[in-house]
């Protein structure tokens, strides 16, 4: 029986972006992700490995750092930009940039030094709350933007205009800022949910409003969406932003970032592929998240989607029975789908059956088969009896000890 007859897809929404161009993917791990208070700034060799893994995953662009923040950051950015050229990586590099000519000059110099065009993502606060806290005026923000964008145009540096806290900014202010930036030649606008404030409806409203404005002035200019996860909505907001008209969405590996982090790039990759929006090979996804975890000293929770230790693991009897019966039909794809929304095979894994206090005979049978142990009802009964007495999953050593003990 075909898979389509086995799963009715309520997700098949013809209005949910299916006619949209492929979403561009922008990885902010090596800059915005490192703002996580618990994260460690990796050595440059670790950053190079992560950059290569972005290339393998088909990520389009990467923020390789903020050279104006420190001498160390500047040196790392130069090395990463050079690696893009030397290794012929497909990942297009860009850098974060405060709205100052000194920051922008550093980026221009790096482009000349490495012969790699490095775009500048010029960020400036835009919301009323930020203006009030900082003592800014809209006229002052416009003058600041004018100075730095004119400098970029004279020095032929590609620029994206990034409004911090866009999701809490007034439309009249945004229109003035966006019109001014568009007149000064920016190639891209970046809408930021800096405080993780937006819900999916707000995301859709803002992106559609901005897309309409841009299309009326310079329709070739692209839109990016950059979202944080304070409400736990960063991934769905990024998807909604693309559906509503954003050309690219930003994320970080494992969602690392300031406070509770950003949209998780690994989850965006999986969900966009499930939606049919991309066809990227995700085999390197566990290596990518593991490299980020190790380099940044950020642990991966066991329950984390797709790459967590428990993502494709069950000790529940009903679940194991369904998977086992699918395996008996000699249908690995069925076994991979019957209790999982994400195919484990996409990331080089398989469904993993454990034995614990909620297990049944199928758990023991499948566990023994995968571990090369001959099955018998007596062995199964002994292992299950030990499992029911326990308050945790039995280890391989536990199970082998039960079997060996009953045969002494």
Question: What does this protein look like?
Answer:
The structure is a single chain. With 408 residues, the chain is an alpha/beta fold. It folds into two domains: 24-296, Aldolase class I (TIM Barrel), CATH 3.20.20; 313-406, no CATH class. The chain has helices spanning 3-6, 44-57, 71-86, 101-114, 128-134, 138-154, 171-183, 200-217, 234-244, 265-274, 285-296, 317-328, 332-337, 361-370, 377-389, 396-406; strands at residues 24-27, 61-63, 92-98, 119-125, 159-164, 188-193, 222-227, 248-251, 313-314, 352-353. The strands form two sheets. An eight-stranded parallel beta barrel has the order 1-2-3-4-5-6-7-8, surrounded by seven helices. It has a two-stranded parallel ribbon with strand order 9-10. The protein is elongated and about 85 Å long.
Question: Mind describing the biggest β-sheet?
Answer: 8 strands, parallel, barrel
Shape: elongated
For the record, the CATH architecture of the largest domain stands as Alpha-Beta Barrel
Q: Unreliable segments (pLDDT under 50, ≥5 consecutive)?
A: none
From the N-terminal CA to the C-terminal CA, the straight-line distance is: 47 Å
Task: Please indicate the count of domains.
Answer: 2
CATH homologous superfamily classification of the largest domain: Aldolase class I
**Fraction of residues in β-strands:** 5-15%
The order of strands across the largest sheet is 1-2-3-4-5-6-7-8
- Sequence of secondary-structure elements: HEHEHEHEHHEHEHEHEHHEHHEHHH
CATH topology of the largest domain: TIM Barrel
Q: What is the total tally of β strands?
A: 10
Assembly form of the protein: single chain
CATH domain class name of the largest domain: Alpha Beta
Number of helices: 16
């Amino acid at each position: 029986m075909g898979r389509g007859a086995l799963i009715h897809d309520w997700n098949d929404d013809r209005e949910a972006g299916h006619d949209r161009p492929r979403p561009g993917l922008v990885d902010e791990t090596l800059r915005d992700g490192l703002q996580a208070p618990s994260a460690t700034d990796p050595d440059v060799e670790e950053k190079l490995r992560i950059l290569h893994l972005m290339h393998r995953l088909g990520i389009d662009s990467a923020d390789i750092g903020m050279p104006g923040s420190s001498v160390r950051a500047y040196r790392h950015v130069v090395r990463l930009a050079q690696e893009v050229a030397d290794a012929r990586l497909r990942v297009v590099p860009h850098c974060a940039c405060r709205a100052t000519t000194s920051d922008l000059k550093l980026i221009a110099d790096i482009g000349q030094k490495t012969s790699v065009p490095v775009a500048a993502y010029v960020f400036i606060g835009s919301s009323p709350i930020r203006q009030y806290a900082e003592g800014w005026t809209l006229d002052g923000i416009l003058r600041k933007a004018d100075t730095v964008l004119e400098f970029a145009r004279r020095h032929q540096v590609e620029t994206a205009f990034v409004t911090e806290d866009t999701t809490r900014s007034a439309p009249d202010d945004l229109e003035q800022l966006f019109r001014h930036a568009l007149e000064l030649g920016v190639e891209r606008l970046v809408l930021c949910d800096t405080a993780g404030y937006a819900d999916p409806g707000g995301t859709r409203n803002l992106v559609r409003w901005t897309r309409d404005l841009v299309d009326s002035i310079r329709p070739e200019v692209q839109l990016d969406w950059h979202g944080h996860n304070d409400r736990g909505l960063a991934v769905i907001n990024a998807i909604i932003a693309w559906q509503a008209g954003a050309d690219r969405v930003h994320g970080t590996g494992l969602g690392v970032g300031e406070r509770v982090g950003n949209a998780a790039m690994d989850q965006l990759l999986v969900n966009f592929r499930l939606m049919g929006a991309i066809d990227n090979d995700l085999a390197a996804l566990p290596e990518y998240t593991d490299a980020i975890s190790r380099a940044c000293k950020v642990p991966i929770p066991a329950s984390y989607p797709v790459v967590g230790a428990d993502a494709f693991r069950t000790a529940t009897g009903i679940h194991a029975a369904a998977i086992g019966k699918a395996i008996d039909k000699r249908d690995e794809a069925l076994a991979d789908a019957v209790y999982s929304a994400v195919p484990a095979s996409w990331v080089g894994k398989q469904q993993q059956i454990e034995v614990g206090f909620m297990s049944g005979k199928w758990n023991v049978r499948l566990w023994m088969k995968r571990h090369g142990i001959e099955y018998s009802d007596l062995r199964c009964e002994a292992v299950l009896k030990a499992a029911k007495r326990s308050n945790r999953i039995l280890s391989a050593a536990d199970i082998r000890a039960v079997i060996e003990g009953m045969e002494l």
